[in-house]
Amino acid sequence: MFKNTLVLTSLLLLSSTTFAVKDPVVAVVDGIKIKKSELDKTYHENLMFVSDKMVTKDKVLNDLINRRLGIKRAKKAKLDKDPIVRKKMDDIMYHAQISKDLEPRLKKIVVTEPDVDKYYKSFPEYRTAHILFRVRTKPDEEENRAALNQALKVYSSLKKKPDAFAELANKFSQSSTAPNGGDMGFQPAIRLAPEYFKAIKGKKKDHITSPIKTQFGYHIIKVLGVKSVKSINNALYKKIVYDKKRDAILDNYFRELRAKANIKINKQLLK
């Protein structure tokens, strides 16, 4: 029995010694150990972003030591209680938790060519020109009325002379595209204000809209063309469809969380 105990003790000592050799301590900072495994991991992570000529284990170890010293000083100063720091910590935890919960679902997202075709049928890419009459984000009644009246006046001229669109855009538009006759080129629907896209959706070439309001002001829009699905930037639209599917997963995730939470909203304060 005594012999067996000695053998077992020897094996345990040998095992712990072997483990220690496998992951030795490369530095100690005020009693806090930095092990070789952490040094190697950090070193290889740095190599992914910086040339190996610029990264050495000495430099990485110095960074780790500085990090330990900085963290120790922050704890001593009780920065974890500081409202600004706590907010940043909350932001990190928020994103980390979402990533942990949703990563398995997001990895299952697949975007196929039929997915892209289906999306593009609903949101085709238009080439348009516009004449913009700007108003502030929160205009007063007088400013809003003046911009609308000017837009209606120009629109009245366009109904008589639709070919004068570029000329009138150059003269009246308050957009950076004015020198080009208001031409914005082809734009995916996601890059247009929802009201702007709604006004041109389904319209044919040379159609001119009556003044429509967006957050930028009043627009008179002329449709210059519609891009064929065969000519689109396929990678861009796959990304757009992917984002749509990702957003649907996020919406469902928070819907599930809200269903389990007790939430009260004072809607009077939202007015």
Automatic annotation (TrEMBL):
Keywords, in A-Z order = Isomerase, Rotamase, Signal
Q: Which GO terms describe its molecular function?
A: peptidyl-prolyl cis-trans isomerase activity
What Gene3D superfamilies does the database record attribute to this sequence? 1.10.8.1040, 3.10.50.40
Q: Extract the InterPro entries matched here.
A: PPIase_dom_sf, PPIase_PpiC, PPIase_PpiC_CS, PrsA_foldase, Trigger_fact/SurA_dom_sf
Q: Which SUPFAM superfamilies match?
A: FKBP-like, Triger factor/SurA peptide-binding domain-like
* Domain PpiC, chain residue ranges per copy: 123-225
Which reaction is recorded as catalysed by this protein? [protein]-peptidylproline (omega=180) = [protein]-peptidylproline (omega=0)
Residues of the signal sequence? 1-20
E.C. code? 5.2.1.8
Q: Which Pfam families match?
A: Rotamase
Presence of keyword Isomerase: yes
Protein name as annotated: peptidylprolyl isomerase
Protein's organism: Halobacteriovorax marinus
Q: What is the lineage of its organism?
A: Bacteria, Pseudomonadati, Bdellovibrionota, Bacteriovoracia, Bacteriovoracales
